[in-house]
């Protein structure tokens, strides 16, 4: 097993990784920006190194500073968490070139799945269903229009190198496509350094369902189970639940088989997620993308399977055998507690004057902050993840209501009032909802 681990991340995911590493007897090293010096993850690590100012480009995305910290502290391995450098193939490759263990998939798999068009083509060749769309980048707006005419409006305009719900727009007609194409292309060039654009069929009513996979050192790829991720704002997730209320045993079998094919197609190792769009009217599902890292919402899969996915990641990276329990029990829901207003979801950073976490049976909180700390504007607005579990969905929802009411945060704006509203919403309670539910509530 790895003996010393540097966590190249911050906040709640850094604390989450530190917790498992300490339980396994692994020495932990935190890296942090100047802005994060007082956060809990820094104090909880065995050692901490400041790697630069608040700007992520000068700290959490600064590969030279991170590698220097690893060298100076004698770290044996690097866990990237999610976001920042977690899906950067060059960084993964550099880590290994420097003689360190990368806790994640190989650089080749990251590269293969990092470009949406390349990923679509690979999946189609592997027999994984993909939505109608372009096989090559739409290099001009005329090419985009030609593709849309073949696919049929409305279409989704996507940055091929995008991720996390960024660089996406819907075009309902030719005029809309002309406008959105240029916006997405410019955004993609600015954010990802790659202006390639993909045109794909847009499904007005669709569910977002994903499958957790683990690729082992001996080549085996297993699929654990699915997560429902359809409660979204601006194509970014707010709530996840497992299992999905939309997935029958027969559909689950097809989803998991497709996810295994996806992993095998790129010789996948370590934890990853195969994201799909599910048409609730037909039961058809289509490959959306593969996230080559640990997901924010991994705790709900952990709970229903009784496993620790970070531990499994570390075992795989160490070349050790995993011990996965394939059965599942109960129902789990995760609510992302963000520093944002609950109506328009605009960021609302600030100093935390009150921070009181709920507890009780079936309640887990993975948090990055505490009373007296500050949510700064430099990073993602996620403050904590409230995870609840019950024997069934109804019990999980009931516990979620109580936990939301008992969670006390003052200082930064927060979206707890939105969750209180959602947990009484008839559409959500029915389980028959889709990615448009938040817009309908607003």
Automatic annotation (TrEMBL):
Its EC number is 6.3.4.14. The keyword Translocase does not apply. Keywords: ATP-binding, Biotin, Ligase, Nucleotide-binding. InterPro entries: ATP-grasp, BC-like_N, Biotin_carboxylase_complex, Biotin_carboxylation_dom, Biotin_COase_C, CPAse_ATP-bd, PreATP-grasp_dom_sf, Rudment_hybrid_motif. The keyword Hydrolase does not apply. It comes from the Bacteria. PANTHER family: CARBOXYLASE:PYRUVATE/ACETYL-COA/PROPIONYL-COA CARBOXYLASE, METHYLCROTONOYL-COA CARBOXYLASE SUBUNIT ALPHA, MITOCHONDRIAL-RELATED. This is biotin carboxylase. It comes from Actinoplanes aureus. The lineage of its organism: Bacteria, Bacillati, Actinomycetota, Actinomycetes, Micromonosporales.
């Amino acid at each position: 097993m790895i003996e010393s681990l540097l966590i190249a991340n911050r906040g709640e995911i850094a604390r989450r990784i530190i917790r498992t590493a300490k339980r396994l007897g692994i020495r932990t090293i935190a890296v942090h920006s100047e802005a994060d010096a007082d956060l809990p993850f820094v104090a909880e690590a065995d050692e901490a190194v400041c790697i630069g100012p608040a700007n992520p480009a000068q700290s959490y995305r600064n590969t030279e500073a991170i590698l220097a910290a690893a060298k100076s502290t004698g770290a044996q391995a690097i866990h990237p968490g999610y976001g920042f450098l977690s899906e950067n193939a060059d960084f993964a490759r550099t880590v290994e070139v420097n003689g360190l263990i990368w806790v994640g998939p190989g650089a080749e798999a990251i590269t293969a799945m990092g470009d949406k068009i390349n990923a679509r083509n690979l999946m189609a060749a592997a027999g994984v269903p993909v939505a109608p769309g372009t096989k090559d980048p739409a290099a001009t707006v005329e090419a985009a229009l030609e593709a849309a005419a073949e696919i049929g409006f409305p279409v989704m305009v996507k940055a091929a190198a995008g991720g996390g719900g960024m660089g996406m727009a819907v075009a309902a007609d030719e005029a809309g496509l002309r406008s959105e194409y240029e916006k997405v292309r410019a955004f993609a060039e600015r954010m990802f350094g790659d202006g390639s654009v993909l045109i794909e069929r847009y499904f007005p009513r669709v569910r977002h369902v994903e499958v957790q996979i683990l690729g082992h050192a001996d080549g085996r790829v297993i699929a654990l189970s699915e997560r429902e991720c359809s409660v979204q704002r601006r194509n970014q997730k707010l709530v996840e639940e497992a299992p999905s209320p939309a997935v029958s045993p027969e559909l689950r079998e097809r989803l998991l088989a497709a996810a295994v094919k996806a992993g095998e197609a790129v010789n996948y190792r370590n934890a990853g997620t195969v994201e799909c769009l599910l048409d609730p009217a037909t039961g058809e599902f289509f490959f959306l993308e593969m996230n080559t890292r640990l997901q924010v919402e991994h705790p709900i899969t952990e709970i229903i399977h009784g496993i620790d996915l970070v531990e499994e990641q570390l075992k795989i990276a160490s070349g050790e055998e995993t011990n996965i329990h394939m059965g599942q029990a109960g129902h789990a829901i995760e609510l992302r507690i963000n520093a944002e207003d609950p109506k328009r979801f605009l960021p609302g950073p600030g100093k935390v004057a009150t921070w009181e976490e709920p507890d009780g049976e079936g309640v887990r909180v993975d948090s990055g902050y505490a009373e007296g700390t500050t949510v700064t504007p430099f990073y993602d607005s996620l403050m904590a993840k409230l995870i609840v579990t019950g024997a069934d969905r109804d019990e999980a929802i009931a516990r979620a209501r109580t936990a939301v009411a008992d969670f006390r945060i003052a200082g930064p704006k927060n979206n707890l009032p939105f969750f209180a509203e959602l947990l009484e919403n008839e559409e959500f309670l029915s389980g028959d909802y889709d990615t448009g539910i938040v817009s309908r509530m607003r």
